[in-house]
Amino acid sequence: MKNYNIYNILKVRMNVNFFPEFLEVDKIGSPDLEVIGGDFHFNKNGLKAYYRFPIKSYVSNKKVFVEYSPKKQLLKLLLEDLEDRTKFYFKESTIYKPFHNVIFPAWPSLRNLIRFLLQIKFLQKGFVAIHSATLSKDGTGIILPAWPNTGKSTACYNLMNDGFEILGDEISLFSNSGKAYKIFESGVFSPRSIRPPFGRKKPFHFDSQKMFEKLKKVILLKKGNPKIEKKKPEDIINMIMASTNFEFQNFFTRYVFLSYCFSSNFEPDFVDKNTRKILKKALKKTKCYVVYGDRTNFHKTIRRLVD
Q: For the chain, which residues make up each domain, given as ranges?
């Protein structure tokens, strides 16, 4: 079992590979979120099943138990008390395997669900996690939100030798005051693969010593003919939320979350409402741009905007 204290914001206990070692501590007291992979028991007696193939769920007060059986695999999970001290248990019948003395959640939908739960717990603390790269140069914090597979990691790779420090290439965490934090070192679950301009894939590793930076610029990346558009913060928030929801949520995640809302009267619009609220405060004094191009030239435009 591993304990993580994330900048005194969130305390997490897990037996899954998820966060980097620099966030690991010996003790944390009562965790805000506990994620446990392994066998567990849930008493379904007296509960009626809600069924939507291939998912079956049972709900009680502040609890949802789900069985999911795609392609002869079986996943079962239990989510408890999303409002306070949240517990999440899961067991996979075929993909669930020991990985270096811990349990590695290999199934993408399960990883997305864990990430979504973390997003909720951060929001409850007044912080927001979005799908974005985080960079720093000369005291300037920069985030690069984008649609998945647009070229964030490639841009980061090409900026590493130009005085930029990479705090993360996949997830950005920041407060409503606009302080951006380093939370993942090189992607969420494994070292990223990036495509340099010459087209060959190459392992991408970085280890910035900087842990946080004041956010000053938002540069949203879009595919298209090269150009730059200056935007007001409120104009860019919808695009950030769209790419984040696409990356963090899928049908399975929404099914589990909405089943829990049905069991407990938890607000179904909690994530969108609070994400927008924090983004408005965090981006209030930032300069915002939309940069059009592709993975071969994004880094050149970013240099011009920052230098």
A: 2-124, 127-306
Instruction: Say if pTM beats, i.e. exceeds, 0.85.
Output: yes
Q: Average pLDDT for residues 175-200, to the nearest whole number?
A: 58
pLDDT digits (tens, 9 = 90+) for 48-99: 888 887 788 999 989 999 988 765 567 889 999 999 999 999 987 654 444 3
- Per DSSP, the residues of the chain read -EEEEETTTEEEEESBS-S-GGGEES--SS-SEEEEES------TTPPEEEETTEEEEEETTEEEEEE-GGG--EEEEEE-TTSSEEEEEEESSS--EETTEE----HHHHHHHHHHHHHHHHHTTEEEEEEEEEEETTEEEEEEBSTTSSHHHHHHHHGGGT-EEEESSEEEEETT-EEE---SSSSSS-EEE--TTS--EEE----S--EEEEEEEEEEEESSSEEEEE-HHHHHHHHHHHHHHHH--HHHHHHHHHHHHHH---TTHHHHHHHHHHHHHTTT-EEEEEEE-TTTHHHHHHHHH-
How is domain 127-306 classified at the CATH fold level?
Answer: Rossmann fold (3.40.50)
pLDDT, tens digit, 9 for 90 and up, residues 245-292: 998 888 889 999 999 999 898 999 999 999 999 999 999 989 999 999
181 in the Ramachandran plot: left (φ > 0), alpha (ψ -120 to 50) or beta? beta
- CA 306 remoteness from chain centre: 26
